[in-house]
Amino acid sequence: SKLTNLGHLEMTWRSRVRFHPLLVRILHKSRLRYYGKPEKKMDMPYQAYFEVADGSGMMSMVLWNSLCPEWYNSMKVGTVLLLDKYAIKSSYPFKTQPTPGDSQMKRFATIEINLNVRDPPTEISIIPEEMVKPEWGLPEVKYRFITRSELDDLPHNHSCDIIGLVTFVGRAERARKREHSEDFWLYRWAHAIDGTSDQPFILELFATSQPDVFEHIHPMTYLVCTQMRVVRDLTENPSSPVYLTTSNESQIFITGWHKGQPYTKDAKVKNFIQWTKSQSEADQIKKTVIGGYYPFPRPPDSFLKY
């Protein structure tokens, strides 16, 4: 059928009611958001953001309400979608923005694609990867992998992807989202090594919308975390170590989940796999730790400094 592209949509959306189908690839995926309130009677108050792209550039796409439980898990980073009967709206100005792996890609930030159950009921089709044709011009998923030796030179809030061998994973902890609030964030600390430094990656992993992965992070698993943010607390304590925390678009993968993921082609991922083949599993297991309370950043060693 006749297709349109994202660049053409941005130029013509105000003068149209009906749009031609779109063929796009998912480049980023946010966690699932629940926006239900006791006074509002909604069956499925869910929402999820995706960043999708074609040959003309990248745009946000929003999955609404009961489409979320139906489609969210099938829509992975790298998935190709054919969309029809979608809606176009001015974009929400306060949403988080992932850092694109391809810095040259054009971003259409004024509008976003909305996928709804009705008004209009969107038609979504997932195109299997083996049926995707090169002439469609869809961009590949690109990453920003770093090694542990590169981390110390990166600025605060820099976005990156990492792969490492887990040597420590702490228990799940909770932090209040706001003071006196009944809502909590669930998170855990982990350490991962990649052979490029004596120091591990220190990772603050918040529960994303992947409970099956979050609950099964354990020592000796190969851990991939995407769209992580560098945290440097230079004001409080300049000597405190740098760590990485998850963002709204972070995805986490462990051994058993890597097959078929787009990052398996990345050079730094291949280098890491080569390094793990040279390691003795018995030696690494001796250095691993699981559970317990992990105070971080560590308090000073005397009350005077405190």
TrEMBL record:
Pfam families: RADX. The lineage of its organism: Eukaryota, Metazoa, Chordata, Craniata, Vertebrata. InterPro entries: NA-bd_OB-fold, RADX. Signal peptide: none annotated. It comes from Menura novaehollandiae. PANTHER family: RPA-RELATED PROTEIN RADX. This is RADX protein. GO terms for molecular function: single-stranded DNA binding.
